């Protein structure tokens, strides 16, 4: 490591490192990876070691690396909005934050290689997106259109794709890729919901989140549409693929989401957190139903 990247002296408490890697964010990519494993149709008794390693790759390693990268490049903003975060608070001192982001990214790529070249390629794409999301000059997160789409693709689409590739030991089929792409788009809508909690700060800091660009009401309607339309397409595909039971399950879960959306639309800034705990959970269950449809069909 060059002198410019070398961390200053100082100790890092394990709790601070864990907080930097944000375990609460690991669930989404781990779930998507698991859906990919199921969709591959490989007997679980044969692929459980791959599934376990892949879960560690998708969550603690790749997602953890993306969180560390984001915190490093957000350290000046966090010093204003969240001074208690590990880097601005000094609990991760000097340039340790950058060193951890680089080291964790390399560790994730090394682990992905053990799952095959296709998984490595997916992990490499996800790592590039993570750095482009947070780091200048691209800093995709500064515009809600690009940033939210990058998160959707990396957290859900690439994780699902990698899970299927790891389980099958080969390039996933067209159906798996289609479902992964559709749920990436649905996650774009979920990410809009996450922006409602910081509308005030984003406005002051001139960050172009979609609620700032479009206004709260229009952004909420876009989020609902972005989440619903891909699920409608998933239902249509499952029916076409002769999986009516699984299509019906996704449909019922979508109807339940429709029942929750009016409350979200009335007060997006207040209700986004509630909807993330309810409506988003229903969407995630639909992912499982869709993955099981491919598994049943072999």
From TrEMBL:
InterPro entries: Chl_synth, Prenyltransferase_related, UbiA_prenyltransferase, UbiA_sf. The chain crosses the membrane at residues 119-138, 145-171, 177-198, 219-239, 245-265, 277-296. It comes from the Bacteria. It holds the Pfam family UbiA. GO terms for molecular function: chlorophyll synthetase activity. It is found in: Membrane. The keyword Cell membrane applies. It is an enzyme of class 2 (transferase). Its main location: membrane. Keywords: Cell membrane, Chlorophyll biosynthesis, Membrane, Transferase, Transmembrane, Transmembrane helix. It is a multi-pass membrane protein. Its EC number is 2.5.1.62. PANTHER family: CHLOROPHYLL SYNTHASE, CHLOROPHYLL SYNTHASE, CHLOROPLASTIC. This is Chlorophyll synthase ChlG. The lineage of its organism: Bacteria, Pseudomonadati, Pseudomonadota, Alphaproteobacteria, Acetobacterales. The gene is chlG.
């Amino acid at each position: 490591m060059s002198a410019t990247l070398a961390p200053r002296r100082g100790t890092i408490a394990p709790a601070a490192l864990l907080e930097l890697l944000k375990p609460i964010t690991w669930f989404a990519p781990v779930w998507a990876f698991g859906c990919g494993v199921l969709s591959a149709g490989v007997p679980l008794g044969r692929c459980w070691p791959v599934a376990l390693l892949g879960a560690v790759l998708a969550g603690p390693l790749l997602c953890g690396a993306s969180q560390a990268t984001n915190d490093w490049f957000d350290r000046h903003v966090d010093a204003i909005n969240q001074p208690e975060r590990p880097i601005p608070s000094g609990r991760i001192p000097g340039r340790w934050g950058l060193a951890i982001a680089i080291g964790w990214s390399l560790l994730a790529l090394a682990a992905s290689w053990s799952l095959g070249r296709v998984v490595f390629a997916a992990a490499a794409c996800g790592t590039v997106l993570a750095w482009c999301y947070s780091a200048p000059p691209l800093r995709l997160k500064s515009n809600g259109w690009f940033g939210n789409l990058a998160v959707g693709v990396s957290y859900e689409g690439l994780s699902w794709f990698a899970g299927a590739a790891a389980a099958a030991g080969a390039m996933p089929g067209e159906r798996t890729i289609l479902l992964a792409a559709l749920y990436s788009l649905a996650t774009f809508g979920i990410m809009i919901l996450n922006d409602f909690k910081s509308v005030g700060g984003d406005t002051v800091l001139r960050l172009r989140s979609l609620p700032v660009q479009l206004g709260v009401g229009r952004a909420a309607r876009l989020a609902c549409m972005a989440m619903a339309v891909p699920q409608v397409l998933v239902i249509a595909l499952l029916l076409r693929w002769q999986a009516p039971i699984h299509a019906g399950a996704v449909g019922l879960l979508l109807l339940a989401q429709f029942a929750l959306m009016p409350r979200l639309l009335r007060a997006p800034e207040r209700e986004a957190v509630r909807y993330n705990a309810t409506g988003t959970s229903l969407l995630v269950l639909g992912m499982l139903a869709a993955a099981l449809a491919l598994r049943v069909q072999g």
